[in-house]
Structure formats: C-alpha cells, structure tokens
Amino acid sequence: QYALDHDEHKNVMDMACWYYKSDDIRFIEVSRTIFDRTSDSGRFDGFHSTRYIGNLAFYLALNGNITPMLNWFGGKGKIAEAARLILLQKTLHPTWRYDVSEE
What GO cellular component entries does it have (predicted)? Predict the structure, then answer.
C-alpha cells in the first residue's frame, strides 16, 4: 500500500510478476488494483513505454473504461496510440460508440 500511495505502480507490478504466476488470483487482484488506481488518477506516465502498457490498455478496453487513457493520449498528442486504443475497444465491443466533445 505504501508503494502505491507513492506512485510506485510500476515497481509493484514488477514485484507481482516476480512473485506470482500470471494466473494466480493474487496477481490478478494486484493487477486490478493497480490498473484501477492508475485509471482513476489518470497518471499513465508511469506505465507508458513499459511492458505493462498493453496489459493496462487491454484491461481498460475489456472493462469499457478507456476514456481516461484516451484523454491522456490526446493530451500528450499521441494520436496514433489513441487510434489503436479505439481499435482495440471496437474489436472487443463492436457496438461501442464514443461521443467527442470540445472542451
């Protein structure tokens, strides 16, 4: 908990990968907690350019919650990454639609 409170999400994921197999319920719980907290906070910088960014994107798309990551990509000018995230979302949820608003 201390590590998560100090934005050490990547390090916690590294430790979880070291200690647990990917199908272990504890690994799944740790991953969910980290991915949910990352999405809620909108702090994707710690995962970008790591081996976990794909897992995080898939988790968010699978659960229909790509908006925070999509906004982060848009804010960073990463249009190609945003497009790939939308493609993933549409692949998993073919009837998904997103209304774009100007703010």
Answer: mitochondrial small ribosomal subunit
CA distance 78 to 72: 9
The pair of structure tokens assigned to 71 is: 């906004």
User: What residue type is assigned to position 89 of the chain?
Assistant: Q
CB 36 within 8 A of CB 60: no
Query: Which residue has 């647990």 as its token pair?
Result: 20
Radius of gyration of the chain (CA): 14
DSSP helix, strand, coil percent of the chain (3-state; round to 5): 65, 0, 35
Distance (Å, rounded) from C-alpha 54 to C-alpha 36?
14
